[in-house]
Every structure is written in C-alpha cells, then in structure tokens.
Amino acid sequence: MADIQEIIAKLFPQAVFEEGDILTVEIPDAQWHDLAKTLRDNAELSFDFLKTIVGMDWVEKLGCIYYLTSTKYNTNIAVKVTTEDRVNPAITSIADLWHIAGMYEREVYDFFGIVFLNNPDMRRLFLSIDWKGYPLRKDYDASPETNPVPDDNERQSDFTNVYTRDADGKIECHEERIFAENDFVVNIGPQHPATHGVLRFRTAVDGETIKKIDVYMGYIHRGIEKICENLTYPQTLHFMDRLDYFSAHPYHHCLCMTIEEAAGIQISRRAQVIRVMMDELSRIASHCLFIGTFCMDLGATTMLFYALRVREQILDIMDKTCGARMTFNYECIGGVMQDLAPDFADDVRALLEIIPKNLKEYDKLFTGNVITKNRMEGVGVLGREEAISWGVTGPSGRASGWACDVRKTTPYSIYPELDFEEVIRHEGDSMARFQVRMGEIEQSAKILAQLVDNIPEGEYCVKVPKVLKLPVGHWFRTVEGCRGTFGVYLESDGTVNPYRLKLVTPSLPAAAVVDTLTRGGKIADLITIGGSLDYIVPDIDR
Amino acid sequence: MEVTTKSMPYEAWKDNEYIESLVKELQENGANVVVGSFDKLINWGRSNSIWPLTFATSCCGIEFVSLGAARYDMARFGWEVARSSPRQADFIMVAGTIVHRMAPVLRRLYDQLAEPKYVIACGACAVSGGPFKKSYHVVMGVDKIIPVDVYLPGCPPRPEAMIYAIMQLSRKIKVEKFFGGVNRQEKQEEFLKNHPIEGVED
C-alpha cells in the first residue's frame, strides 16, 4: 500500500492521504481527471475496475468517493473529491476513462444534484425530469406535496445535457440529441414479458438492426438508501431481501458483515457455516430460476417447469428454517435469526443427490439443442477488457474471462477453507454466460457437500446490544451475490442510524452494458442478451 | 345466497360477510328470471377462465411465476393463460411496488384492459406501500390510482394466498349482474371522474 501512496504523492503533491481499511486519497477537483488517468494507465497501479461512485452529502460539502480496484494486483483504493458549492456543485467527469462511470455519475447527479463536467449524457437516472429536489441530500424536503404521485404521463425529452466549463471557469450547459434526428425509435418496456421486470429500452432501429439503446430505469426505484438513513441498523436489514430477491441471503450476509465489523462483533462458527450454506443454496435456486426464465425467453417454456422443480425443493428447505419462501430476513447482526430446522441436513443431502441428475437433464433438453446454439453462440460478445470497464461482475463477467469472484479475490467468512473452483469461460457470448451459471450450480453443490456433514455445534447468534451504535467511520464490504459483486458502503456518525448507506448492486452495470452488446445486432437478440445478463430490475433501481 | 366454489366449503371462506353484502346490494331491486339465469350462465364461464396480465414489478412477481409452475399450477383453476397484452387479459395482478414513474404506466395498462376488468392488489406494497411507507418515490397503495377488487396482504404472499385471492375474485365475478345492473361500470365511471387525467376524455 505504501508504494501506491508514494507513486501518487510524487505525481500529485496536493493529494491528502488517509489510512483506513483501504488507502483513501483526497484530491482537488482540478487534478482529479489527471489522477484518474494515472490510476488507470500507470502500469504499477492499473486500477482498471471502478467498483462504484458513492455520492455523499456531508452538509458542509458535497462530494463523491470513488472505489477502484486493480484486477491485476488485487489492490484497492478510494478517492475522495469534494465541492463546497451547494447551489451549483460540479465535479469533473471520468466517463471517458471507465465506461460504467457515466452511469454512476448520472445516479449521483440524480440523488445529489452534482453535475459532472464533460459527461456526455447528464440526465437524471431514476427520477423524472420534473422531479423537484435531490432526494439523498440531507436538506431534501420529502413531503408528498413537493412531488405528488403523477396523474399524467411522464414528460419525455429527446435531448440530454452536457455541462462544460468555459475558459473563465463558468459552467455552461448545452443540449444534445440522444438519438440522431431521423432515427426510428421503438419503445420496449416497461411492461414487456421479456424485460424481466419493469425496465424500458428506447431502441433506435434500422430495419431489424439495433443502432442504439437508451436504457431507461427507475420504474421500481423505491429509495431504499434514503429510507435506511432514518432507521436503526437492525431495521435496515430487511431491505436487503427486497433488492435482488434471489440473493436475499448473500445481501443480508454483506450488510450484517459490515455492521458486525464496524461494531466489533465476532460471530460464532456455527452462524458462519449456516450463512455460507444459505448463500450457496440461494445461488443454486437463483441460477435455476435464471435457466428457467432465460429458456422461456427463447421459447423453451418446458424448461421453466424443470428448473423450478429444483428451486421449489430449495425453497422448502429455506421455508423450514427461515419461515418464508422469499424475503427471509434470516441473517441478523450477530448471527442468524433461528437455529436450523432439525431435518435441514437431510434435506440438503437429498437435494445434493438430485442436482447432478437434473443438470444432466437440462443439458440434454436445452444446451445441445440446435436452435439454442444458433441463438446463443457468438451472440452478444463481451470482451474481458470491456467487461471490466463496464464493471460487469458475477457469472456474466466470468463468462468473459474475468476472474472476479469475490469469494476468491477477497475471501470472507469461511470461504478460504472451502474447496471450490471459480467457473471461468472465455467466449464472452450468451452461451458462455449460460454455461458459467450451470457450472456454478455444480460448484455450489460441492461447497454444500463439504459443509453439510460438518455443521459445528454452538450458538447460532451472539448477544448483541438492543440499541446498536456504531463508532464514527466508514466501511465498504463486498460479497459475491448470485449475480455478481454486491457491496455495502456504510458511513456512521456515531448515532443509532447510518449516516449514509450506499448499496452497490451488480445489476446496474449489467443493464448499462446492454447498449454496447446489442449494437449492430438483431432486435430478437436483445431478448437473449438481456436474459443472459440476468439483471433483476429492483436490484438496478434500488 | 351462498356463493360457493367447487373445491372449498362455504364455511372455509374468511370473508363471507362481504360477499353476502355484495349480493344483497346487487339484488336489491330483484332479479329478472330470464336475465338472471343468463347472468348465471355467463358468470359461470367468466369466473372459471379469468386471464391475468403478465405484470410484475418485483418480488411478488416471482411468486406469481411459481404459481404458474407445476407445483401450484394455476391451470387447475383456468387462470393459466397469462397474456402479455392488456387487451386480452381480464385482470391485473399488481404484483410488486408501484412507484411514481410507474404509476401513469399502470394507469394506462388498466385503461387498456377490456371491460369487465378487475384488479388484485398483491402484496404489502401494492396494498399500502408496505415496507416502503416512508419512501419519497413509492405510491402508497395502488388504490390511489386504480380501483382495487381484492386486497392480498403478505410480503410476498405465498402462492397459496394468491390462489385464495384469485378464487375470491372469481366468487365476486360469480355474483355480478352482467345483463342486469352492471354495477361495476358505474363504479368505474365514478372513479375516473374523481381521478381525472388531463387531456384524456374518459
């Protein structure tokens, strides 16, 4: 870590360093773009993966924290850029350096009103253009009168804004067209059976060929991050179930882990094993549903019934222990809510027995099918560099040859002790994304097989004070959700409520990359590509 | 008059009082013998083939998928023909949270459904905003934008509960007067008068 600091300090004497769990650099806005370019391009640093941009309102100033990772050296760095201007806050954009940055910047603009200079597409992301105020600012007026439920269709614009700074330092705004003037734009969604929820694509087409897609989000933006700021820590947990409802367990795991680390709580070995088992069970269930719905998108409806059969069996196991089929709210601070059901181990063993048979069956029914092959092989190819720049993690990233499994790169809980392989393919097409998920079911089953006979005795939940206060500080933790890297950024000001809780979800990059993947392809392939990326819309919108 | 279904005894229903009051209201002016019999025949058909619109915004939608799959198998009741176009569907199962941006879309979907049409508010979010009660962007119950026939609590409701809710809807359909009063349409006109959309003549 010291040498990263040295390199940066030599090039940027203005940089202020702060040692924490990871190195944090604070830099004035004027140098930010240069620093970002150095961080990405310097061979000794090569921070090529932008994990997230956390927008912040510290009342006296607004700002962003950029979390960067080097996939080459597996090092992390955080960069803080702030502005004191609350009326016209502006920060230089880095959308030209990382593809995904443009999308993250739009999110920060939407929530905090920070304008990113030179970002080619500075529109609101989740809220409508007529929305008053910026909801995640601390002085936001949340009364329903400010922004009533609209009874009219949403105002649409064909234009986007680009902000630049002119020679005198004044910020100028000019409009630019989203689509070319004569483009034929077809609207797909939000109510469409194959968009997997309420996502909308404004698609410019030339005949059947896609020219450009404008991904339009926010049809299920529920403002979870803002609600959490007024809740106590145990109360924030249940929202993790409702983001990506298939990854309920891993997401819970992540937030619990972050809070436990901040509060210095050690959890028992039994609780850790239970958590990991639940994570892996939900991974299998999630991938099963992926296979089902994805095949249904391609017209193979029968596969849905085959895949859901396994999923129902897993849901039964969870139902017995957690008391629900979905939205379990099972992991809690200090461990898990209840002990395992008496026949948990037997049920898991029974499940492990049928999984190999089922996978064989899926392969026989679907994978080798000639229509499947034609629809999926070589369609929507995402290269490794692109995947990293777009921040597409999880099975979709691993299908492009990027070893991005958090369980391997930054192991947490008891994963270091477990024997499993990271499934990686290099084709980067829809077929690879499908097969990585098939492979991961096998690996998850392997993990479960190692644990099912070795669930240690002990308490399942340690005693935690009823009123939980965290020390002042900030923490950023990631886990491997079913769809990719899920991260929690938690900032505490020493009270019982989080000062800021930022949820970094894998589905947002997956949806953002659709435009790049589909350009030049046929409109029918949009469905295959979208399906194979496996985004969950509430996970995008939060 | 007992409104029954084939598979469930009358006493097992939890809200008979409501349906009885509905029957009473509908039959206040008495029913014509011929028209009443026609009604019965038509409603028998309608109540056994209610087609849902494929509509889901979040978690509840996944339980709706489970409902369609082999284990819960809604095809047993004649509801399996989930249509992707509102023009072909009988009811919307509002499965999931409705937010400000989605509200006009849902309203338009409802307007596009062919009469007679029904709405089930499925899950806590659709009933009242649920866990997102304090959100700045969530509609606190879909009954603010469209009339609701059946409220189904749960977060998400289990598929069994969904079956119960749709059976409840089918009971409601059974007692409607298709030829006689058509009370339903009057209610909707009234509703639209109270919730106008600018520039649209209802």
Class from secondary-structure proportions of chain A: alpha+beta
Shape of chain B: globular
Let me know the number of strands of chain B: 4
Here the CATH topology of the largest domain in chain A equals Cytochrome-c3 Hydrogenase, chain B
Based on CA atoms alone, the radius of gyration of chain B comes out at 17 Å
Based on the coordinates given, report the CATH architecture of the largest domain in chain A: Orthogonal Bundle
Helix content of chain B: 25-40%
Give the termini separation of chain A.
33 Å
Relevant CATH superfamily of the largest domain in chain A:
Cytochrome-c3 Hydrogenase, chain B
Main β-sheet description of chain A: 5 strands, mixed
Spans where pLDDT lies below 50 across 5 or more residues of chain B: none
Give me a quick take on this structure.
Chain A is built from 18 helices and 17 strands.
What does this protein look like?
The complex is a heterodimer of chains A (542) and B (202). With 542 residues, chain A is of the alpha+beta class. Chain A folds into two domains: 8-178, NADH:ubiquinone oxidoreductase Nqo5 subunit (Beta Polymerase, domain 2, 2-Layer Sandwich), CATH 3.30.460.80; 224-541, Cytochrome-c3 Hydrogenase, chain B, CATH 1.10.645.10. Chain A has 18 helices and 17 strands. In chain A, the strands form six sheets. A five-stranded mixed beta sheet of chain A has the order 1-2-5-4-3. In chain A, a hairpin with a 2-residue loop joins β11 and β12 (209-216). In chain A, α6 packs antiparallel against α7 and α7 (269-297) runs antiparallel to α14. In chain A, 49% of the residues are buried. The mean pLDDT of chain A is 87. Chain B has 202 residues and is of the alpha/beta class. Chain B has one domain: Rossmann fold (3-Layer(aba) Sandwich), CATH 3.40.50. Helices cover 39% and strands 7% of the residues of chain B. Chain B has seven helices and four strands; from the N terminus they run ααβαβαβαβαα. Chain B has helices at residues 16-26, 33-47, 59-68, 103-112, 124-128, 159-174, 183-194; strands spanning 52-53, 91-95, 118-122, 150-152. Chain B has a four-stranded parallel beta sheet. In chain B, α4 links the parallel β2 (91-95) and β3 (118-122). In chain B, α2 packs antiparallel against α6 (159-174). The longest helix of chain B is centred in the last third of the chain and has 16 residues, at 159-174. The radius of gyration of chain B is 17 Å and the shape is globular. Chain B starts with 15 loop residues before the first helix and ends in an 8-residue tail after the last helix. In chain B, 41% of the residues are buried. The mean pLDDT of chain B is 80. The interface between A and B is large, with 47 and 46 residues.
